[in-house]
Amino acid sequence: MRWSRITDPALPPLAISLGDPAGVGPELICESWARREAEGLPPFFVCGGKDVLSAAARARGLAIDFAEIFDPCEAGSAGREALPVLGDGDASYTPGNPSSLGARLAFNSLQAGTGFAVSGAASGIVTGPIAKAALAEVGFDFPGQTEFVADACGVPAEDAVMLLAGPSLRTVPLTVHCALADVPGLLTQGLIVRRCRVVAEAMRTDYGIAQPRIAIAGLNPHAGEAGRMGREEIEIIAPAIAQLRADGIDATGPHPADTLFAPRARATYDVAIAMYHDQALVPLKALDFDQGVNVTLGLPIVRTSPDHGTAFDIAGKGLADPGAMIAAIRMAGEIAARRTIAQ
After folding, report:
1. Domain 161-298 - what CATH class?
2. What are the residue ranges in the chain where pLDDT is below 50?
3. Which of 119, 173, 265, 276 falls between 20 and 30 A from 165, CA-CA?
C-alpha cells in the first residue's frame, strides 16, 4: 500500500488534540509541524497547550515558533511560519509524570478538537495519545477516545469501527478492549455483518477502493478445522460471510489467522477483519509500528490517531519516532479530501 498524498487546499485545517502532556504526544506534534513541508502535510492547529508544546519542542531540540490563533480559519496563514495553537488551556510540562492538571488539559483539548470537527470548522481531528486511567480521574467516562468522538457525533458506539492502517496492512478488530475469555460470547453474526458493512463503505468513500476485498479471520486455530477446534467458524462466522456476499460485498473466509497476514495473503485483500484485539494489532505493529494509524470508521467526521500510547518512559528524551503521528495527520487530510471529492 502506498500513501496517495491526496490533498485539497480549500479544506479547513485539521484539529489536533494534545493528548496527555506528560506523554510523547506534544513533542511528536511539534516534530510533525517541523517536517510538514517535507512530508506534504495539510494545514493543522493544536487545541491548547502552547506552553507544553514550547517546552516539548525545546526538549526535543526543535527551534520552532508558535502562533496563538482565535479561529481555525487562521491556521493556514499562521501555520506557514509558526505552529498554530488555539485556546489558552495549559499545564506544566512534566514528561513521564502525568498529573490531574495534565489530564484535564488533555480532556479539554479533545473536547475542543472534536467540537471543531463536528461543526465543520476543522476538516477532521487527529487525537494525541491519552492515559485512560488519568482521564477517568477527571470525569472522562468513556472506554477510549473512539467512543467519546462517536458519542459527540451522535453515533452508537457499536457503529464506530476501529481500523488500524499502515503501509503494509489494514485490519479491524471486531472486539476491542475486553478480556480474551469474553470474546466468543461477544461474537455474533449480526456484529460481523454490521461492522463489515461499515468497513466496506469506508473503503469506498475514504480510501477510494471501488470494490473492496474483505478477508475475515477465524477465531480458533486453523479456523476451527471443520469444528474440531471450535464451532464459531461454522455457526457464526461463515453464515455472516454468506450474508455479506449476498449483499454484494466481496468477503472471504473464515481464514486461519496464522497465515492471513503473510505477504502473499496480504496481496489478496484490502482489509482484514480480526476477531479480537491482539489478532489485529500484533501483525499491524509488527509490520508498521512506526507508521500505524488508528482510524475511526462510520463517523460523519474524520478521526485518526497514531497507533501508539503515551510512552511515558521515553517522553521528553527525544527518542519517540514521529512516523505514526505524521502518518495520522497525512491520512486524515487524505480522507477529508476524498470525502470532498465524492460529494
Report:
1. alpha beta
2. 1-6
3. 119
Distance CA 11, CA 332 (A): 12
> Per residue in 29-71, pLDDT tens?
999 999 999 999 999 999 999 999 999 999 999 999 999 999 9
- In angstroms, what is the C-alpha Rg of the chain? 20
Is residue 321 a contact partner of residue 288, using CB atoms and an 8 Å limit? Answer: no
225-244 core/surface letters (b: 16 or more CB in 10 A; e: else): eeeeebebbeebbbebbebb
Please list, in sequence order, all residues whose beta carbon lies within 8 angstroms of the beta carbon of residue 69, skipping any fewer than 6 positions away.
45, 75, 78, 84, 85, 86
pTM (global) more than 0.85? yes
- Do the first three CATH levels of 1-156+302-343 and 161-298 match, i.e. the same topology? yes
Q: What is the pLDDT of residues 138-191, one digit of tens each?
A: 989 888 899 999 999 999 988 999 999 999 999 999 998 889 999 999 999 999
Please report, for the chain, the start and end positions of each structural domain, with discontinuous segments joined by +. 1-156+302-343, 161-298
Residue position matching grid coordinates 479533545: 110
At 272, give phi and psi (nearest 5°).
Answer: -105, 135
Q: For residues 73 and 286, give the distance between their C-alpha atoms in angstroms, rounded to a whole number.
A: 39
What's residue 1's pLDDT? 35
**Mean pLDDT for all residues in the chain:** 93
CB 297 within 8 A of CB 257: no
